[in-house]
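Figure 6 in text form: structure in, sequence out.
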């Protein structure tokens, strides 16, 4: 029988959580007295719950940074994005993107990362790093925070959709920036909500209403998000993940 695994020294360790699960199964199917099995399982579950809480805890790598100094939006490019991200534009871009499948450049992950070296995201005033530095910094921050390897990989490739900037974009405004729902009223919670007044959909009889072209409680899978690097890359992990 495998000995029970405890997580005092393994917080935020995905493999350790797998070992806990295996140990619970071993305890259930072992010949231990019922009382010993119950005690082992209770301890393992308690430790696993503590590990999940640690997973959701605040990041440690930048805990000493002044977050109030982040996001100087006056230097951002959100205003152009808010003016031009209409339903018509989003429908057209998705159609063009689908029609271009099979005609795109082929490259490895590191080639793609290197191609982003010259791009500085104008929508993110928190950093003036190139994208390659940003990706490495993100992956390293996740590693230092004790997250599992798969999450470090996600951090490394999370912005590869910004390659869209080099392949048919109309500017940074349709590649980078914060994402929001189009086709219904723009909420005040979006940064610079006043800049949406120049968007043609702002006065559209349907798109300016609360629910717009959607049904209430339809869910995120049923809405259209503003076009950009996140929308081009979001389907990819689903297709290649086991």
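Output sequence:
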């Amino acid at each position: 029988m495998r000995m029970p695994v405890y997580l005092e020294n393994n917080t935020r360790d995905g493999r350790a959580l797998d070992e806990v699960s295996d140990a619970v199964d071993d305890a259930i199917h072992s010949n231990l007295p019922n009382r010993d099995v119950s005690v082992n399982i209770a301890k393992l579950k308690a430790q696993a719950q503590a590990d999940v809480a640690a997973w959701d805890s605040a990041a440690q790598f930048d805990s000493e940074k002044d977050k109030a100094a982040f996001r100087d939006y006056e230097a951002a490019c959100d205003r152009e994005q808010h003016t031009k991200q209409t339903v018509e534009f989003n429908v057209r871009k998705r159609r063009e993107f689908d029609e271009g499948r099979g005609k795109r450049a082929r490259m490895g992950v590191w080639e793609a990362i290197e191609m982003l070296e010259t791009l500085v995201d104008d929508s993110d005033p928190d950093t003036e790093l190139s994208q390659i530095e940003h990706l490495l910094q993100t992956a390293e921050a996740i590693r230092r925070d004790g997250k599992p390897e798969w999450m470090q990989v996600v951090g490394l490739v999370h912005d590869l959709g910004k390659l869209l900037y080099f392949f048919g974009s109309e500017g940074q405004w349709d590649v980078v920036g914060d994402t929001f729902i189009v086709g219904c009223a723009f909420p005040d919670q979006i940064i610079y909500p006043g800049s949406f007044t120049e968007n043609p959909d702002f006065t559209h009889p349907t798109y300016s209403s609360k629910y717009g072209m959607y049904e209430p409680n339809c869910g995120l899978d049923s809405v259209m998000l503003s076009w950009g690097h996140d929308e081009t890359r979001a389907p990819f992990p689903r297709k290649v993940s086991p």
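Caption detail: Strands lie at 181-182, 224-225.
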